[in-house]
Write a structure and sequence with these properties.
Elements lengths: L1 H4 L12 H10 L10 E5 L6 H12 L7 E5 L6 H12 L8 E6 L6 H12 L5 E7 L7 H4 L3 E4 L5 H15 L6 H10 L4 H11 L5 H12 L6 H11 L6 H10 L4 H18 L3 H13 L9 H14 L3
Parallel strand pairs: 1-4, 1-5, 2-3, 3-4
Helix pairs in contact: 4-5, 7-8, 7-9, 8-9, 8-10, 10-13, 11-12, 11-13, 12-15, 13-14, 13-15
């Protein structure tokens, strides 16, 4: 996959996220011994949280493969997992001086698992570093969050996104990719570097710009969505969207995080907008996208999502 080929391996290779990059440089300026032992990387999906965690391991800690432990808390989230990681953190590194534990989707750790980690991250071993990565920092208990140095990753916008796409296009072709295609990908990716690179790989060799836009619209139209989120997307663009009872029922069935649903709805509506010929419908979809423009990370995220969907369902054609 292209996004793996172009993934930065040093801090200087990172495009965008200037604040996060500068913070990491400052924290490790005196070397690992003087750096914090526990980090919380939070921000939207695909904006570089895990990449920055790996860079810390490779560049600053010189962690070897056997001493880098990456766990997806969406799949391994219980107290037994937490206890196993605590045990691993106490072991001396097999190679080098440090061991790094990275927990992706950390907000999905159970409350018991988070509770069991408190002592370990408060009194870390001299050789151990912990990095929690999450799209939902509010999903971590305040006591665990307060033990972390928080660093936020942000979407890639404007010139930074174009720089990434131009650089990545050289991996696909010696001649690069057409500027119009790069701009179409830039517009469609909504600031997500990983999504932009996935899109670029799909359209790089498509010569017809209209066909490029069709492919991007399809990409935005539902890949990777849960069935309930996709049903909600379809409901909002249908002629039945005014039936709030149906929308409310679909909201009640959602298992995805509110921010993920918001982004999915926005992307789906963008895809619908790109395909639509009616100006009235275009205005409708544009209004919906604007109503869904604010990130939903707070403790009221579910209520914010319900309010936004209600507003979208009431817009007139």
């Amino acid at each position: 996959m292209l996004y793996n080929e172009v993934r930065p391996v040093t801090i200087e290779d990172v495009i965008g996220n200037t604040s996060a990059v500068e913070t990491i440089k400052e924290l490790f300026a005196g070397g690992p011994k003087d750096a914090p032992r526990v980090f919380l990387f939070h921000g939207p999906t695909g904006t570089g949280k895990t990449t920055l965690a790996r860079i810390i391991g490779n560049e600053y800690l010189n962690v070897r493969e056997m001493d880098l432990l990456e766990v997806n808390a969406a799949e391994a989230r219980g107290i037994d997992v937490a206890r196993a990681l605590i045990g691993q953190s106490r072991h001396s590194p097999l190679n080098g001086d440090y061991r790094l534990i990275v927990l992706d989707e950390a907000h999905q750790l159970t409350s018991q698992a988070q509770q069991s980690l408190l002592k370990a991250v408060e009194d870390t071993e001299a050789h151990s570093f912990w990095i929690f990565c999450t799209t939902e920092p509010q999903g971590l208990t305040p006591t665990l969050r307060n033990r972390c140095v928080a660093i936020q990753t942000r979407p890639l916008r404007g010139a930074a996104m174009m720089e990434l796409l131009v650089s990545a296009s050289s991996y696909l072709s010696d001649d690069g990719v057409a500027v119009d295609t790069l701009k179409a990908v830039q517009d469609a990716a909504e600031g997500c570097p990983r999504q932009a690179l996935v899109m670029l790989e799909k359209v790089a060799f498509v010569n017809d710009l209209e066909r490029v836009k069709e492919i991007l619209a399809d990409e935005l139209g539902g890949d990777g969505l849960s069935a309930s989120t996709l049903d909600l997307c379809r409901h909002l663009v249908s002629n039945d969207r005014h039936k709030w009872g149906e929308a409310a029922g679909l909201l009640g069935e959602l298992s995805d995080e509110p921010e993920k649903v918001r982004v999915s709805l926005s992307n789906y509506l963008r895809g619908a907008l790109l395909r639509e010929n009616s100006l009235d419908r275009c205005d409708l979809f544009s209004e919906m996208i604007r109503r869904l423009s604010q990130p939903m990370y707070s403790g009221s995220a579910k209520a914010d999502l319900a309010s936004a969907v209600f507003d979208c369902s009431q817009y007139a054609d």
